[in-house]
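Entry 14. Structure prediction run on the chain below.
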Amino acid sequence: MVSSMQVSDGIRNDNEEDDDPRALTFEEDEGEETMPHSPGAPNGGIFDQEWPEVDAFAFALNSSNLLQFVDPNSVQAALSGYDLIERFKNLSGTQLDEVKAAHMSELSHESTADVAHWELEHQTWELFGTLSSHRLDGRIQAQDLPVELANNKHTSNQRLRQHLRETDAKFQEWCLILQWLCTYAPDPSDLFDNVEEIGGKGGWMYTKESLKAEKRLRGKRGKATLAFGARGGGRPSNKITELDPDAPSRQQKQLESEDEDSERFLFKAIWVFLRKGDLKGAKDLCAEMGEFWRAASLDGGEEVWDPMVDGQRFDNQSDEESMDMSENSQAEGVTGNRRRELWKRMCYAIAHRSGAEDCEKAVYGTLCGDFESVLPVCVSWEDHLFAHMNSLVEEYYSQYLLRHGRLSPAALSFPAFDSTAFHSRVGSLAEDDAVLSRIIDSLATLDYVKAESRVPLRVIQGSLMSLRFHELVDELYRQLLTFRDNPDYDPLHEEGSIGVDVTDCRTLRIVVHILLVLQLLNAGFTEDTPFHTQAEFLIAAYIEFLAEAGKLKLIPLYAGRLSPQKAIDVMGVILNKIREEPLRLELLELMRTHNIDYVGCLKKGMEIAFDLTKNHYENERRHVATLSVTAGEILEEDNLLIQGLEWLVLGGEELKAESVGCATVIYKRLLLSGRLAAAKRVSQTIRSTDLIPEGGDVNHFSSEGIMEDGEIRGVFDSEVDQWALAVLVEMEVFIQALDELEAWNELLGQKTDRHPDRARKAALSEAYNSTNHKLGKVLRTWLDEALITVPPFPSQSHIIDPSSIVALRNMYIPELTFALHDVYIMAGKYVSKNLLGNTLDLATVVADPNRSVLKCFTETARVEEYLRALGLASRSVLGISGVSPEKNNNKLLGIWKVR
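Output returned:
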C-alpha cells in the first residue's frame, strides 16, 4: 500500500514530465489514459444481458462455509469445497432447465446455443468435483496385493480390480473419467424410439421364414419339386442355410435383407448402450430382439464371483466403471466368467474380422478395450475420448492381472490391442504422466472434432483431466496482456489459438470460480505457488466485468480473494466508477466484511484519480475567465478528482489528514485552471467544520496561523497536517468570498420598475457589507500565513506545494482586487456615493509595503492596469468623472493622469 505521498499530486510531482498516466484495468501497466465512468445504462456489449447466473454464483460462493475456514487443509474445508462445487453444478442445471422451459415450443439458434452451453457447464462442474475429490483424497496410497489375494488363485479377479482401484490413484482417476463420459453420453431411449417395433422382428425372423418356405418346397427328402421347374430355383446361394449364431461367419453367407437391417440396428443400439456404460440395457435389448444367445455372450464381460470363495457380494461392489458391470443384483450361485481375458481376445478377433459392419466391430472393440475398431463410429469429442479411456482402463487392468500371474497361457496366446504401445512413450502406462495430455492434444488435430475441441468448455474439461488447468490460466493471462497492448487483438483468430477468449464472460466466470475453489482448498494458485500472479489478473478481469455489468455489490466478495496489495490496486480502480453515495457506503461496509484494506483502497482510488487526470490540468492554459462559482462547467476529469475525495472523506478519522492534504492538491489543480464551479463542489465535499475536533476554532486556521499541537492532537498531529488544514480553511474562505461576490452581482443584475426601490437598496446594502467583509479579508490575508509557515515536507505526501500557492495568489489576488474595486464603484452608484471612496482605501492596501498584494500585481505585470482603473474611480470620487482632461484647464486633474 502506498503511504502518504509527497509533493503535490499523486506518486510524483506535478512537474515531472515522465509520469505517464496508466490504464485503469492494470494499475501496474502503462497504457493510454482512460477515464472511468459510472455504470449506468450504456448500450451494447455486456449491458444487453442481465447475467442472472453471475449473481447466483456469487451468492453460492459467499454463502459457502469454505470462506470461513482458517485451515484449508482440514476435512471440513474439503467437504465445504465439494459442496460449493456441487452448488455450482446445480446452478448450471437450474439454468439449463430454465432455458429449456423458456423455449419449450421452439428453440431459436441463440437458445440452442444456450442449452448447449449449460449442458456442457453442468458436465464441467461434475468433472471438476469428481477430480477434485479424487485428487485431494490423501487416503489413496499404493499397497501390495494382500496375501489372501496373492496366494489364492481361486479368488475372483474382481477383488484384484477393486484393490487396484482403491490403491492406485491413476487407475481410479481414469475409471472416474470413463464413468463421467458414460454418465453424460446420449440416452439410448432418446435415440431409439422404435425399439419395440423392430424388436418384434428380431431373431432373424425373415431368414427363418425363408428357410422354412424352402424346406416345404423341397419336400421331406430335400429334393426340388415341380414348383421350381426344370431350371431349379430356391434361395440365393449367398444366404445362410442354417440358423445357429455362427452360421454367417462359418458359411460366409448373409441373412435376408430385412434381418441384415435389423442386425445393423441392433449393433448400433448395443454400441449406444455400451457408450452409456449400460451393459444390462444392451443385454435386455438383445433379448427383446429375440437374440438371447447374444445377450448371454455379452455376459462374458463379467468377472466370475463365487460366494463360497469370494464371500458375500454387495450391490456397491459392482464394477460400474468398466464394461464388465454386474446387474447389481444378489446372485445365489457362481456368476460371471472365469476366462474373461480369453473372452476379451475373442471379442478382439471379431472386431477385426473382415466384412463386419462398423457398429459390430465397435461393439466388440468396446468390450475388449480395442481402440482402432471403435474409432470409425466415434462422431464427437466425447466419443473419441471414451474410446481412448476405455482402452486405457482395460489395458491397465490386464497388465495388473499379468503382473500377478492371473492371465492364463491360453489367453496370452491370442492377440489383443496393445494400448501401452499405442498411448505411452515410455513403455508403461503407470509411469507415463503425459498420456492424457497427448490424448487431449490429439483430439484437437482431428478434422472432424477439431471445432468441438475448441469449444471453451471442452478446453476447460481437457485442461482439468490432463492436469494443465494452470496452462489455461496462463494463456488467458497472456491474452490480457496482449489486449493491453492491442485493443483490437482477437485471440480466436490468432495462429495456434486453442479456442478460448478471455473476454468471453462465461469462460472467464467458470475459470475464475474453479481457481477460487482451488485456492480456498490450498490446491493451487496461492501466493506461495507459481501462476499466482496470473490467477490474480484473471480475478481482477472478472471484477472489471462485474463493474461494467453493473454488479458492483458483488465486487468486494471477489476482491477479498486477492492478495492485500492486489485488492487495493483493483478496488482503487473500481471506486472511481461509483458516484452514488448510498452505494458507496454499502461497498465500504462490504469491504470491511471481506477483510479488504479499505483505507488502502480509498487512498489508491485517489492516487489513480490524480494520475489519470494530471495531464488535463498541466496542459491547460492558466487563466480566469470569470470569478463565478456557478457558471463554469464541471468536466469529467474534475468529477473524477472530486469522487476520489468523496471516497476519502468516507474513511472517517483514519483518513481525515489524508483527505485534507488531497483536497489542497485538488483545489490547486482546479483553481489554477480557472475551474471555480468544480472548486466549489470540493468545498461542499470536505468542510473544515467537520474536520476540526470539538473545541477547535476555524478562524485560528485562516488568519492567525497554526494552532498549538496539543489542541488537535490525535487527528492532525503533525506540523504538515496542521499546515494543510490551514490551507484548506483558506480555500474555503476564498470560495465563500466568491459566493458573496456572485450573490452581489446577481442582485445588481435584477431589474426593478420602481425607482428608487428602498427594499432593493436595503438588500444591496446588506449584500455589499457581506461582500466587502469577505472579499476584503481574502484580499488582505489569503494564503499569506501559509507561505510564511511552510513546514518541511516528508519524502512523499499528498499536499499542495508552496510554489503553487504563489501561483494561486498571483492569479487571483489581482482579479479579486479588480472585483472589489468594481463592488465599490457599483455600491457608490446604488447604495451610497460615499462608498466610492473605498476605492482609494483599497489602493492603500495594494500599495502597502507590509503586504504582498503589490507583489502579485508586479509579478503579473498588472500594476498599470490597476492604476488606470484607480484613476477612473478617483475622478468619480471628485465628482468630475465625465469631464475630459483635454477640455479642462484645472491643474488638479494632473495628479489623476496615469502614464
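The mean pLDDT is 84.
Filed with the rest of this week's runs.
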